[in-house]
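Handout, section B. The chain below has 379 residues.
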Amino acid sequence: MLADLEFAYSPVREKVRDLREYLDAARLRRELSDIEEKVADPAVWADAAKSQPLMRERKRLEGLLADDEALGRRSDDIGAYFELAKEGGEEASLLADLEREIDSLSDFAEKLETKTLLGGETDPLNAIVTVHPGAGGTESQDWAEMLLRMYLRWAERQGFKTEINELQDGDEAGIKSATFTLTGEYAFGLLSGETGVHRLVRISPFDSAKRRHTSFASVFVSPEIDDSIVIDIKPDEIRTDTYRSGGKGGQHVNTTDSAVRITHIPTGIVAACQNERSQHKNREKAMKMLRSRLYEFELEKKKAASKKLEDSKLDINFGSQIRNYVLQPYRIAKDLRTRVETGDVDSVLDGDLEIFIAGYLKMRREGGIPAPITDDDDL
C-alpha cells in the first residue's frame, strides 16, 4: 500500500516542484517590495488611477507568495507522513490520512496551475456574462437557460457571488436573454474563454415524436472594469429607455416600471438592468455594464485584433460554435478549439468546467491557434 501511495505521489511532487520554480518566491518578494515602496508614497493615494492597480497587484503577489508557502508546507507534511509510515509500519489510519493529503495537494496544485495561467490585464476583474439563444424558438431558449444554470453552478463551486442583472423569460420555456455579474478574484480570466457559440444535441423534450434536435446559444463574457479605467461616455451618445420588467416574476425581476436599457449609439452596444426596484440603481448598474463592454471594445481595437467586439458575436449556428454538448446518440462534451473532451456531460452541465477552462488558458498562454472545425464535429 505504501509503495502504491509513493507511486501516486510522484507526479504530484513533480508538479509542485515545477509550480514553485515557476512562481519563484524570491522574484515575487522583490516585486512586492517594489510595490510597497510605491504604495508608501502619499501622492499615490490621491490618484485612484494609480493606487487601485497597485493595490490589486500587491494583493496578487501576496496571494502567490501564500500559495508558494502552502505548497512547501503541505509537501513537507506529506514527507513526514511517509517517514512515519516507514518507521511505524503501515497502519491503516496513517495510510488513509496520507492518501487524503496527497489527493488534497493534487487538487490544490491543479487549481494553482490554472491560476498561474491568468496574467492578462483584466483577468483579475469580475465578469459580466450574457447568454442569448439562437434561432429555434423554445428549443434554443431552453438550451440558453441550461447554460445559464451551468455557469451559476460553476460560480457557486468557485465561491463567487452572482447577481442577475437582466433576465427575459421565454414564451413557453427557457429564456430569451440573461445577463449576470460574477464577483470574485479572477472571475473574468477564468471565464474569458467561454465567449462564443455553444451547441447542444439531444432528444427534444418538446417534440412528441422524440426526434433528435440541435440547438445553439451564444455566451459573451466581458470584464467589469473599475473606476481606475477611464471610459469617456458622452451624454449625447447614449439613449436610455425605461420599461416594466416582464416574465414570471419571482426573485430575479420586479414588477415596477423601473427597468433600464442603455444603448451606446456610436457602437450599438446595449446594457440593461432590471433587478433593482429603483430606476436610479438600475441605471447606475447598466452604466457600469456599458462601461465594461466599451472597455472591451476599445481593448480589441488597441490590440488590432482581427475581430472586434461585435465580430465575437458570431452567427448562432453550426460552424461558429466553440463547444459541443452531445446527449444523443452518445454522450460527450467537446471543446472544438482545444480538443479537450469528456464523456461526463451531466457533470459539465452541472458546472464542472475546470478541464475546459484549463485547456483554453493553456492554449492562450502557449499562443495556440484554435483547431479548425472538421466534419467529425458535425455530429
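Note. The CA atoms of residues 6 and 82 lie 8 Å apart. Compare this with the example in section A.
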